[in-house]
Amino acid sequence: MRQASGRATAAAAQRRAFAIAILAAGKGTRLKSKRPKVLHEIGGKPLLAHVIAAAAQVADPKDIYVIIGHEAEKVRAAVADTGVSFILQKEQRGTGHAIKVARDAISKYKHVLVLSGDVPLIRAETIRRVRDFHQKRRAAMTVLTAMPADPGGYGRVLRAKGAEIAAIVEAKALTKAQHSAREINSGIYAFETKPLYRHVDKLKTANAHREFYLTDMAALLGKAKQRVLALPAGRASEVLGANTVAELVQLDADVRAQKAAALMSVGVTIYRPETCVIDAAVEVGADTVIEPFVQLLGTTRIGPDCRIRSYSVISDSELAAGVTIRNGCIVDRSRIARGATVGPYSHLRPDSEIGEGAHIGNFVETKKARVGKGSKANHLTYLGDAAIGDNVNIGAGTITCNYDGAEKHGTVIDDGAFIGSDSTLVAPVRIGKDAYVGAGSCITESVPAEALAIGRGRQVIKEGWVGDRRARQPRATRKD
Ligand code: UD1
Ligand code: CA
């Protein structure tokens, strides 16, 4: 017992030694968007939420400081539930300025890991690697670097000797000779806070953007005889930034590809995975087949042995085993039980519950509707605010009239009832067990169990009517 708590205390001390600062105050001018850059999404989740999720695996949320500025309140609200702290950088005068603004909070820690709100694919294990390398090598500054195929607009790392860095030069400031430098600065660093804050006020704004660059700390600390080291990342793809829409879309594709690969590794078949959009939190069981151009979003959970046919979009829904979703369905915040079949072209709106083995067919819309075991609504139907029992047959074109212009009302259809085609059920109304409703009925009153209800004008036949009319109007000719 004592030993365990001793270890826990040591771990807590270790955590307090490191703060994590996430730079997220910038506007993201290159995205040309109203939305702040760090709230743009990849894999269905804001960039900043990805970075916080990785950071939270390494440090307590209370030791994570997100530096916000541009649209600060929006950014804060989007990630407030993670429990991290926020520091306001009112004017965004550069990455170095952001770290200056955070001085009071950060200087309480021995070290700080700096992450970028727009470098979203960083993994917790890489953050740990930076931390451990930095500590072991007793560096004042450690820079995570990479060698992407195209170093493009990234800052370049100029090495001194071995792992030591002489300077980081922004792409725009590279001299001709420096252009061949291929090692990029990922924007992810570890600093010992004492030397950082002793020298940070020496940063100057004599550069293309008239900003305080955090990158200049490399040369500043080097000059002050402090150790500045490079740590190459295992894979360059992990530290790519999202500065332009093209970069964002590429990162999104990477995240989706990883998700599809993860699902395939647990036995899900995804045809043409590059056409599917599957959010990170989605779960799918083995032997389920996902056809091209399917979207599975939010918290969707799909059981084993299902088939999701092309062009269906399923959000925040639960599908049990053996469910078939035929082409072109929209399923939103709904539940579908084992063996049910939906579609083609069905729209399950929120709070639809489709029972075991039930069939929801072509152009059927449901909303707040429970459809019991084995029941069928195969064609052209609207079921809203309805509680439908087991083995009910809903004929083509049936409408539950749930809205009277002011309020919504419920329809109840008990087990075994048969609703003839083109019926309108004017709620509130109840159709009893095993009752029949004749086709084309407008039902305004409840129908008792086992009864037949017919609510339509009686058919009239007028024998010889056409000849009679001809006699009355000899010159009338038919236009058709
Ligand atoms: C930065 C680095 C560059 C590196 C690249 C890696 C500098 C000067 N350059 O360039 O060497 O290769 O990241 O992705 O640091 N931010 C603030 N406050 C500010 C300015 C920026 O919080 O005043 C935040 C931004 O929201 C962003 C991050 O800092 O999340 C990086 O800023 P950004 O302008 O994207 O820097 P880069 O030009 O990409
Ligand atoms: Ca950037």
TrEMBL record:
PANTHER family: BIFUNCTIONAL PROTEIN GLMU, NUCLEOTIDYL TRANSFERASE. Catalyzes the last two sequential reactions in the de novo biosynthetic pathway for UDP-N-acetylglucosamine (UDP-GlcNAc). The C-terminal domain catalyzes the transfer of acetyl group from acetyl coenzyme A to glucosamine-1-phosphate (GlcN-1-P) to produce N-acetylglucosamine-1-phosphate (GlcNAc-1-P), which is converted into UDP-GlcNAc by the transfer of uridine 5-monophosphate (from uridine 5-triphosphate), a reaction catalyzed by the N-terminal domain. This is Bifunctional protein GlmU. GO terms for molecular function: glucosamine-1-phosphate N-acetyltransferase activity; magnesium ion binding; UDP-N-acetylglucosamine diphosphorylase activity. Its cofactor is Mg(2+). Residues 1-245 are annotated as: Pyrophosphorylase. The keyword Magnesium applies. Its main location: cytoplasm. Pathway: Nucleotide-sugar biosynthesis; UDP-N-acetyl-alpha-D-glucosamine biosynthesis; UDP-N-acetyl-alpha-D-glucosamine from N-acetyl-alpha-D-glucosamine 1-phosphate: step 1/1; Nucleotide-sugar biosynthesis; UDP-N-acetyl-alpha-D-glucosamine biosynthesis; N-acetyl-alpha-D-glucosamine 1-phosphate from alpha-D-glucosamine 6-phosphate (route II): step 2/2; Bacterial outer membrane biogenesis; LPS lipid A biosynthesis. Residues 246-266 are annotated as: Linker. It is an enzyme of class 2 (transferase). The active site is at residue 379. Residues 21-160 form the MobA-like NTP transferase domain. Mg(2+) binds at residues 118, 243. NCBIfam families: glmU (TIGR01173). It catalyses: alpha-D-glucosamine 1-phosphate + acetyl-CoA = N-acetyl-alpha-D-glucosamine 1-phosphate + CoA + H(+); N-acetyl-alpha-D-glucosamine 1-phosphate + UTP + H(+) = UDP-N-acetyl-alpha-D-glucosamine + diphosphate. Homotrimer. Keywords: Acyltransferase, Cell shape, Cell wall biogenesis/degradation, Cytoplasm, Magnesium, Metal-binding, Multifunctional enzyme, Nucleotidyltransferase, Peptidoglycan synthesis, Repeat, Transferase. The keyword Nucleotidyltransferase applies. One of its GO terms (biological process) is lipid A biosynthetic process. Acetyl-CoA binds at residues 396, 402-403, 421, 439, 456. Its EC number is 2.7.7.23, 2.3.1.157. In the N-terminal section; belongs to the N-acetylglucosamine-1-phosphate uridyltransferase family. HAMAP family: GlmU (MF_01631).
